[in-house]
Write a structure and sequence with these properties.
mainly alpha; 11 helices
Length: 210
C-alpha cells in the first residue's frame, strides 16, 4: 500500500549445507536470473547483494530457515557480516532478516555483538497440538486425496499420534506413507492399520532430524 519496492526471499540454511556462500548464491540467482556462475568469494557475493539492492532501490526481507545449520558450520561470523555489511555499502538499511531456529539454545553459540542484534525481537513458537495438526492434515488431504479416501476418525487418530512430537512434517510424512500402504493394497480408503504401518516404518527420530 506504501508502494515500497520490496522482495521477500526464503532460504533453508540446512539445504544450503550451512554455507553462507550457498545462501547468498541462491539469493542472487533469485534477484539476477542470469547471475554468472564463476567463482566468487563469500565476501564478493555479500557486496554484490548489497550493491544490487542499492542499484535497484530494493528492500529485501530475507528469511534464514533452520539457521542452526549456518551457526554450526560458520559460527558467528556469517551472521555478523549479514547484519553489519549494509552499514558499509548502502545509504540506508535495505536488508532485514527473519531468523528461524529449531533450538533457541543455538543463540548461545554466537558472540555478544551478534547476539545483541538478534535478541531484539524474539518469538517462541510452541509445538503443534493435536487439533492444529488435524487442521494441517485436513488441508493436505484436500490437496492430495480424493473425497472419502480417509475418514475424520482416521485423520484424528493420525493427528493424536503425531502430537507426541508436535512436528507437522512428521505428521505429513505419516499421512504420505499411509497413503502408499493403502495404494499398495489397492484399498478403497486409508484405514487406521495403514497409519499404524506407516508409524512403524518411520523412526521417530525423523521428527528430530527433519
Amino acid at each position: 500500500s506504501r508502494k515500497i519496492n520490496l522482495r521477500y526471499i526464503h532460504v533453508n540454511c540446512r539445504e544450503s549445507r550451512g554455507s553462507l556462500f550457498l545462501v547468498l548464491k541462491k539469493v542472487l540467482i533469485d534477484l539476477i536470473p542470469r547471475f554468472p556462475q564463476r567463482g566468487f568469494s563469500t565476501e564478493e557475493l555479500l557486496r554484490m547483494l548489497m550493491e544490487t539492492l542499492e542499484d535497484k532501490k530494493l528492500f529485501m526481507i530475507l528469511t534464514l530457515d533452520e539457521l542452526d545449520s549456518l551457526i554450526r558450520v560458520e559460527g558467528s561470523a556469517a551472521l555478523y557480516n549479514l547484519t553489519r555489511v549494509q552499514e558499509q555499502i548502502t545509504k540506508m538499511p535495505r536488508l532485514s532478516l527473519i531468523c528461524i531456529f529449531r533450538e533457541i539454545q543455538q543463540l548461545q553459540q554466537l558472540d555478544r555483538s551478534t547476539l545483541g542484534t538478534l535478541q531484539q525481537n524474539l518469538i517462541t513458537l510452541a509445538k503443534y497440538s493435536a487439533s492444529q495438526l488435524y487442521t494441517i492434515l485436513n488441508e493436505r488431504i484436500q490437496l492430495a486425496f480424493k473425497d472419502g479416501v480417509i475418514s475424520e476418525m482416521t485423520t484424528q487418530f493420525l493427528a493424536d499420534t503425531a502430537a507426541s512430537t508436535g512436528d507437522a512434517r512428521y505428521a505429513i510424512e505419516i499421512l504420505w506413507r499411509s497413503g502408499k500402504y493403502a495404494d499398495a493394497e489397492q484399498a478403497p480408503e486409508i484405514r487406521p492399520e495403514h497409519v499404524r504401518k506407516a508409524i512403524g516404518s518411520l523412526d521417530i527420530r525423523f521428527s528430530e532430524d527433519s
